[in-house]
Amino acid sequence: MKILQTGLPKMADDLLKAALLERAKREMAARQAKQPEIGEDGLPEPNTGLGRAMRAVRNPINAVNRAFSNIYTLGSLDEIEGAADAAMTDQSFSEARAASRARSDQQTQQYPIMTTAAGLAGAVTSPVAQAVAGAAPAAATLPGKIAVGGATGAGLGAAQGFLEGEGGLSNRLASAGWGTLAGAGVGAAVPALASGAGAAYRGVRNALADRRFIGSVSSDLGISRRGSRLLTDTLGMDDAARMRSALQNTDAMLADAGPSAQGALDTVIQSPGEGARTALRRIDDRAEAAGGRLRGTLDNAMTGSNVGAQGGRQFSDTARLQGDVRKATAGARKSVYDAAYDQPIDYASEAGMRLEGLLKRVPAKAINDANLLMKLDDNPSQQIIARIADDGSVTLDRMPDVRQWDYIKRALDQSASTGEGQGALGGQTPLGNAYKGLSRTIRQALGEASPAYDDATRVAASAIDEVQAIKTGADALRPQVTRAEFEASLDGMSGGELAAVKRGLRQQIDDTLANVRAVASDPNIDARQAAKALGDLSSEAAQDKMKMLLGEDWGPVKSALDDAAQALGLRARVATNSRTFGRQQFGQMIDDSIQPGRIASGEILGPLATPRGILQNITGSTPQAVQRAGASIRNELADVLTRPNALATLNALEAARSANPILPAAGQGISNVLNVLGLRSLPATVPEVRNRLQ
Does 358 have pLDDT greater than 50? Predict the structure, then answer.
């Protein structure tokens, strides 16, 4: 009983231990059943799901890493791995290197896209590739870039070929040679391809910008795209700066922009149609308005210079103006000059002694001419008694009075402008200038000695002086009259004489513009006549002369002259040969009238016509459609080129171009980037080409 009592607890304890041990064995067996076996590469065996998953992630990463490293080191990864494995394992260097190359080849075949991308990344970031590409000289031209690219590729290809070569030195040198050849070819091709890509981008980009520009012009001006294209191409042939300068006036037309625009208008305006008729009417209205403004401006600037002929005459000229002066000033001149002639000269005064001193400079001919003039004018003044010595000196028995001095001055003026005083080309000889200078000196001295005479010359110039002043103004714009001569002729003139010069100039300008208007309205007159007439008015010399005469009034006159020249010049140019064009166009209209209609010609059949007709109907290019399109474009251009306020139209065109610019250098940045990337990627691309060549 005692034995049983002591044995039962021990048995129970053994049974419990056995049960716990069995349980621990089962749990260990269960855990071992769930834990996969480890393969030689340190990962679970590939026959398990976990092993396959881990290899699916690690293998491509390893392949990308090896491909990147291989190109990064210019193909020397197998050498580096071979040396490392030989040092840490029992393999020889050759065996380890061969194993490394085998792994690289296997990974390239298994992951071609990823390894290629990794290789390109390694090439671009390779310090050696960057150093070689950065050391290459920059070239400005495409041939220069091709040469630099070829040299860069040859250097990188040779180095990489040598490092990737297998076997002895001879094999490596052979591989380097193939690398040089492949690198030179690929390196030279990179700039060409990069430039081509940039050019392609530039062509597409600028074509789209130009299309948007034409669409904007078409929308802004309300014309077709074809008309917009022709308009912008035409304006593009004229100088932009001169174009803007020519369109400053509010009534300026695009046709004023330059020769190309004028030539386009001259062509399209000759064709029949509403656009041509509207354009001609606008040109005529503008020319008439500009002429009216010029006449008003000239009347304001040249006081008392109305050209309208007196006495009901329709026209006037220089001779009639001179006759009008004589008639119009006869009464006033007689009154003031009679008062002056009655005033005695005090020869004891300083002014009188100065006059007396001038007597010795007066030639005998002038005294004789003065006596003759007084006789012809039936003047009551006493005869000038003069004794002329053998040496030509003159001695007067009686000192001249105011009337006699005035006639001596007139005689000198006549000698200056006629005979030996007149130059061959309408100017004055040195002798004529001397006569004129002496006459001017006598008039000034006589005015000081006789204030009444000075008053008379200020109130109204003598008929001879005023008539001569009219002729001076009428001849002012002649090329033979220099600016210096004209300026000298104005010196010392009285207010009446200056008004007469303006009157003569006013008449000459009116006659010139009348000739231009005649050319503009008669197509049989050569437009070169109008161009010459306008050139006479707009030349620098002519405008300098007018500025001398008009002073502050020159600004408005110049503006009005420029406007009139622009308006009348355009009218004259488009009128040239218009009759010939009219005959041609009327003949065309007759031909068109006898052409068969849509039914008779078969145009109405459309797709049922001939194959050629089918295509023409589909594309809208039948002869009739082409003719209608051409007429429509001509009408559009005639309208746009003659619209007023052309500067606003030009601004709209420039705004449209600014919004859609044509960039000649577009794509250059793309070319540069592709060129750099291409050269730096040579370590990745050259081996592929080299392997194909070997």
Answer: yes
Radius of gyration of the chain (CA): 53
HEC secondary structure over 180-207: HHHHHHHHHHHHHHHHHHHHHHHHHHHH
CA-based angle 224:226:231, to the nearest 5? 95
d(CA 448, CA 346) in angstroms, rounded, equals 11
The set of residues, in sequence order, having a beta carbon less than 8 Å from that of 324 and lying 6+ positions away, is 310, 316
Which tokens belong to 125?
A: 């970031």
From CA 326, how far away is CA 336, in angstroms rounded?
15
Distance CA 75, CA 68 (A): 10
Q: Is the Cα dihedral 378, 381, 385, 388 positive or negative?
A: negative
pLDDT of 533 reads 62
Instruction: Give the SS3 label for residue 428.
Output: strand
β-partners of residue 387 are 395
Q: What SS3 string covers 21-40?
A: HHHHHHHHHHHHHHCCCECC
* pTM confidence score: 0.55
- The predicted structure's pLDDT at residue 204: 92
SS3 422: strand
- Going by the DSSP 8-state scheme, the letter that residue 348 receives in this structure is T
pLDDT of 293 higher than 70: yes
Helix, coil or strand: residue 429 = coil
Closest CA to 122 of 74, 71, 183: 71
What pLDDT, on the 0 to 100 scale, is given for residue 212?
93
More confident residue, 171 or 257: 257
Q: Which amino acid is at 396?
A: L
Top pLDDT among 287 and 390 is at 287
**Looking at the predicted structure, is the pLDDT value of residue 7 above 70?**
no
Q: In this structure, are residues 439 and 417 in contact, taking their beta carbons and an 8 Å threshold?
A: no
Query: What phi-psi label fits residue 396: left (phi over 0), alpha (psi between -120 and 50 degrees) or beta?
Result: beta
What DSSP character marks residue 44? B
CA–CA distance, 66 with 81 (Å, rounded to integer): 10
| Residues facing residue 38 across a β-bridge | 44
What whole-number distance in Å separates Cα of residue 601 and Cα of residue 583?
Answer: 27
**Dihedral sign computed on CA atoms, order 311, 312, 313, 317:** positive
Return mean pLDDT, the chain.
74
For residue 664, what are the contacts with CB-CB under 8 A and spacing of at least 6? Answer: 202
Name the token pair of 133. 């590409």
Token pair for residue 430? 């040195």
Q: CB-based contacts of 565: which residues, under 8 Å, 6+ apart?
A: 534, 537, 538
